[in-house]
Amino acid sequence: MPCTDAGVERIAAEARRALDLCNACRFCDGYCAVFRVLRSRRTVSAADLAFLSNLCHNCRSCYHACQYAPPHAFDLNLPKSLALVRQQSYRDHVWPVCVRGRPPGSGWGFVAGVTAASVALVALPVLLSVPPELLFGRQAGPGAFYRLVPWGAIAGVAGAVLLWSLLAIGLGVASFWRGMGPAPAGVALLPALRDALSDAASLRNLGGGGAGCNDRDERFSQARRRFHHALFYGVMLCFAATVVATVYDHVLGWQAPYPLLSLPVLLGGLGGGGMVVGTAGLALLKRRADPAPLAPGLTGADCALLGLLFLVAASGLALLALRETAAMGPLLLAHLGLVLGWFATLPYSKFLHAPFRFAALLRAAMERRGLDSLSRPGRGRGPTEWGG
Ligand code: SF4
Ligand code: SF4
Q: Which spans are transmembrane here (predicted)?
């Protein structure tokens, strides 16, 4: 994929051409937030491109509905154009500044390399310091995990890597927020934040021009939305399990591993199951998807993140199932290393689409509320059909 200046310019010019055509045509106005935002613009600026490309959920409805899509001479492919601009927006705003312009996690290689290094970072000190009969022996009872890897080492290394990644994501999103241009003035943030949270939690923009996405052809399907929900809420449940386990350990003094019917195990088991189902389902849909509305070269980044999340969840579930056997030691090292790899790649992998898309949803909600207030009687003229 081109990331030279000329290549970037070509991608932007093609996306602008597509959006200008859409703005004149307006057939897809009701499909998603992209078209609703487009309606309020006469021309599409560079800031608008960054905004609209991250607002697009790539449901592909507008491609299948478009009378100007190939083989028409206009050769219009809006989902593909927006996907290419979206990928460029990650490069433009990734932090630290010295890696800007480079493809953040654009394929398997980066995520696989960092994850392999993370597994080695966790496993090597343990292999060198823990006697083999302990590491490969059967462990049970409170504190069994920490006999192999001390809690301080787990929390210290994982915490430091996670803090770095959250800082990088925060600064990247702040740069992206500025890159979308000035936010609408005089709009209350909290109600807009509530709207954006609702849009994100329901994946409303995956509805497209019917009931769901067009993964393979003109038929609508809710499969992508369901698998995405399974993955998202699976990650949330695993996070909740970690928080509860931390409270158990450090407030109540109850050390892991916990019984099967305890809250951390139930939350983690459900969350891990959701992540396995979600990642496997999304990967399968990607494999079967019609390649025409997809941007070439981006599937690797998607699959790298899905593959890593699948391994994180599967290793966690395997650890849960086999924790009282001799496999517990190797599984614990593998799971901790994979989680560390995930944390380390957060700001440089496809994961970045989540905070960027949320920022775009928030900006869209602010615009929507700003225009709504303008269209109220006595507040001047504005589009009256903006909502929805
Ligand atoms: S995608 Fe095609 S049909 Fe839809 S608004 Fe754009 S030009 Fe019109
Ligand atoms: S979200 Fe769907 S309908 Fe909207 S621009 Fe993207 S692909 Fe087209």
A: 108-128, 148-174, 230-248, 260-285, 297-322, 328-348
